[in-house]
Amino acid sequence: ATDFGIKDALQQLGVKDINNGTSTGSNNFSTGEIIESYSPVDGQLIGKVKTTTRADYDKVMDAATTAYQSWRDVPAPQRGDIVRQFSNKLRDLKEPLGKLVSYEMGKSLQEGYGEVQEMIDICDFAVGLSRQLNGQTMPSERPGHVMREQWHPIGPVGIISAFNFPVAVWAWNTSLAWICGDVCVWKGSEKAPLCTIACQNIIAEILKENNLPEGISCIINGDHKVGEMMTTDHRVPLISATGSTRMGRIVGTTVAERFGKSLLELGGNNAIIITPTADLKVVVPGAVFGAVGTCGQRCTSTRRLIIHESVYDKVRDAIVGAYGQLTIGNPLDEKNHIGPLIDKDSVNTYLAAIEKAKAEGGKVLVDGGVLEGKGFESGCYVKPAIIEAENHFKIVQHETFAPILYLIKYSGEVENAIVKQNGVAQGLSSAIMTNELKEAEKFLSYAGSDCGIANVNIGTSGAEIGGAFGGEKETGGGRESGSDAWKVYMRRQTNTINYSDELPLAQGIKFDL
Ligand code: NAD
User: Fold this and answer.
1) Which among 222, 428, 495, 511 is least surrounded, fewest beta carbons within 10 Å?
2) 210: alpha, beta or left, given left = phi > 0 and alpha = psi -120 to 50?
3) Helix (H) or strand (E) holding 110
């Protein structure tokens, strides 16, 4: 891996003591057991991080709650300026941070850089937003009265993130939360702990340069047990959690029990509907990138193609043909399309899913399997598979976080395809490929896709930060990133002000004294 400049990248990011002792990073009070981070790229140990104990956690929360008291006093546009400085630093460090993402998580280098670019983009969005945290005014029914709505900071925000976007999801949350006047406590994925340390180092430097307390941005390390310290903590009014539906079910109910708010970004089971008029030039790259990009480890990865029977054979052959051209290997080498899965557990889940699909009657069109030999020593490289299946198969109904694409046939009108597309428990991303205006509009209508994201003539993955991101049903209902997603990081207050000399009651109620 040193060939690809990983050592230099880690040094530039201040991630210390590689392969020798622990990497503590800044504002990381952690003193607990050690997590070792192994790269799925080559199986090498990259570094070690200490987990957060209960006593460490309380120190972090003290730092966060104290910092909140002064951070909320800073005017929002000035908070935006801190985010601007942070994004400039990210521009400087795009290369090393993108490399670390690629090496620790296993996505292609281009996607690693893309993830850092997403951080920069959301920061730019947040800077502009820092002057637009606008409330409304409403006419009062009472003479001499005005009504208005204000948005206030909510407090320390807890962020729990998944391994597959080990840096961008944090930035989606923090950049907005910071301009809103909140401080953030982040538990990154235990599968990519060095990415967490690197990000914290970057913001810590900006805060220091501006004489601001580092408690504005805090990290805690470890698995679900560390996450639970935060989800059960009444000092954390909002938990933003990204990960599996299994995790979201636990986090959502735990936070609700204490009347906290949660923003849940959970699993997807995303489909593309391919209609008779679909343009193959668009379908093939859209479907193939959607299915194999990030080795099928995006929440928006394409899992199902729902293809009209009249074009089924043509589409199937084109996609199977394209799979033949894919190169699998070290993701830091830009000639490879597909890198490894995150770990061997994930490889086993992938293999089991293929067996389950076969057992339910699925027909394998492109066979999967684990790659062995030189360059594949980590044991995490797999071949992307294509399986002809039925939508109701149990395994098709389930999100397998790996490159397995199910081909499903539909006949008749587009409504039949929409029923299949909606016929899963998850509701994140969806797409239709068509040149028929009526089909596209039906798909986007209230009776169409039931997902949070619905696209026409592009695939299911690769969202831009300008729109609100998230999904319905078991995807959890949360929205992050663009549009008015910022509102979740604030509390709304309605004000009624009487500037008259009387006290008329609402609804004309009389109360004579
Ligand atoms: P995961 O659910 O195993 O872990 C996600 C995070 O939750 C980790 O930081 C983990 O430590 C933490 N966690 C797990 N159980 C917890 C608990 N009980 N209390 C507190 N924290 C807990 O998911 P993963 O394997 O890291 O990521 C893959 C999953 O994430 C997929 O299902 C994918 O679709 C989903 N995902 C969704 C989005 C989205 O925006 N909708 C984005 C990325 C990933």
Assistant:
1) 511
2) alpha
3) helix 109-129
**What's the rounded Cα separation, in Å, for the pair 510 and 513?**
10
What span, in angstroms and rounded, lies between the C-alpha atoms of 154 and 263? 13
Which ligand 1 atom is the nearest neighbour of the CA of 480? 40
115 lines ligand 1 (CB under 6 A): no
* Other beta carbons within 10 Å of 413: 12
Bridge partners, residue 430, by sequence: 271, 454
Q: Which two three-digit tokens encode residue 481?
A: 């990133």
pTM, whole model, 2 decimals?
0.97
Which residues are within 8 A (CB) of 325 and not within 5 positions of it... i.e. 6 or more apart? none
Q: Using a 6 Å cutoff on CB, does residue 224 contact ligand 1?
A: yes
- CA distances for 225 relative to 57, 160, 185, 242, 247, angstroms: 12, 12, 15, 16, 12
The residue with tokens 């490929």 is 433
Please give the distance, rounded to the nearest whole angstrom, from the Cα atom of residue 188 to the centre of ligand 1: 10
Q: Which residue has the tokens 């735990």?
A: 254
What are 291-321's pLDDT values in tens digits? 999 999 999 999 999 999 999 999 999 999 9
Q: Which of 53, 54, 61 is nearest to 32 (CA)?
A: 53
Residue 299 CA: nearest ligand 1 atom is 34
Residue nearest to atom 14 of ligand 1 (CA): 224
What pLDDT does residue 513 have?
A: 86
**Nearest Cα to Cα of residue 387 among 414, 350, 418, 417:** 350
pLDDT of residue 258: 98
Pairing label, strands 238-242, 217-220: unpaired
Burial class (CB in 10 A: 0-12, 13-18, 19+), 335: exposed
| Ligand 1 atom with minimal separation from the 222 CA | 11
Q: Is 307 exposed, middle or buried (0-12, 13-18, 19+ CB in 10 A)?
A: buried
Asked whether the predicted pLDDT for residue 1 surpasses 50, the reply is: no
Mean pLDDT of the residues in the chain: 96
ipTM: 0.98
What Rg, from alpha-carbon coordinates, does the chain have? 24
Taking CA 153 as the corner, what is the angle to CA 147 and CA 157, rounded to the nearest 5 degrees?
145
